[in-house]
Design a protein that fits this description.
- It is a single chain.
- With 186 residues, the chain is α/β, with parallel strands linked by helices.
- The protein has one domain: Rossmann fold (3-Layer(aba) Sandwich), CATH 3.40.50.
- Helices cover 20% and strands 28% of the residues.
- Helix 1 crosses helix 2.
- The chain is globular and about 50 Å long.
- The relative contact order is 0.21.
- The model has no long low-confidence stretch (mean pLDDT 91).
- The structure holds inosinic acid and magnesium ion (MG).
- The site of magnesium ion has 4 residues, from strand 5.
Length: 186
């Protein structure tokens, strides 16, 4: 069985497992500092944020409530097509709460801007966003996250929760796959 660390489909590792863990620990400190003595409502964007969300959450010392939304996926492609949809909404009341939306990656900006617009209609006390990765070169909708793990170049990446056609989420690092595995030229 191939090792998870040297998966045969991986062309190159962009961010190693060790770098991710160091940066997520730092991000958790940044978030903790921003919300001192505040109860936080964390809303994870599934499925991509699941690994990052778990690691970030268990490093937050303040009282925290957890909820999630499910947004539309890329299906089997690497390019965002059409309007984004929210498939499953959050359940906890967010009115008057300090809300932190956590996602894996900020790409065109469509997903997070839609989710934030939707949450704002519920009148939270504050609303911020935290992403592990940011691809600023691909933005179609102006959007800046409040907490960013790494800015990365325009490449389709997998691992640490990010998928290609629902695979590779369990890779421990952020990696680029071999080009022959991707169907669309970017
Ligand atoms: P956006 O709406 O274009 O900003 O895309 C956000 C969503 O697209 C993320 O939550 C990811 O699920 C997915 N996505 C964007 N870029 C990548 C990538 O390089 N690898 C895997 N998923 C991606
Ligand atoms: Mg996602």
């Amino acid at each position: 069985m191939p090792s998870r660390r040297t998966h045969p489909d991986v062309e190159r590792v962009l961010i190693s497992e060790a770098r991710i863990h160091r940066r997520v620990a730092e991000l958790a400190r940044e978030v903790t500092h921003a919300y001192l003595n505040t109860e936080l409502s964390v809303v994870g964007v599934l499925n991509g944020s699941i690994v990052f969300l778990g690691e970030l959450l268990h490093r937050l010392p303040m009282p925290t409530r957890l909820d999630s939304v499910v947004a539309s996926s890329y299906r089997a492609g690497t390019v965002s097509r059409g309007p984004v949809e929210i498939y499953r909404d959050f359940r906890l009341p967010l009115r008057g709460r300090h809300v932190l939306v956590v996602d894996d990656i900020l790409d065109t900006g469509k997903t997070l801007s839609l989710i934030c617009k939707h949450i704002r209609q519920h009148r939270p006390a504050s609303l911020r966003t935290c992403v592990l990765l940011d691809k600023p070169a691909r933005r179609l909708v102006p959007f800046q996250a409040d907490f960013v793990g790494f800015k990365i170049p325009d490449a389709f990446v997998v691992g640490y929760g990010l998928d290609f056609a629902e695979r590779y989420r369990n890779l421990p690092c952020i990696a680029v796959l071999k080009p022959q595995l991707y169907p669309h030229p970017r």
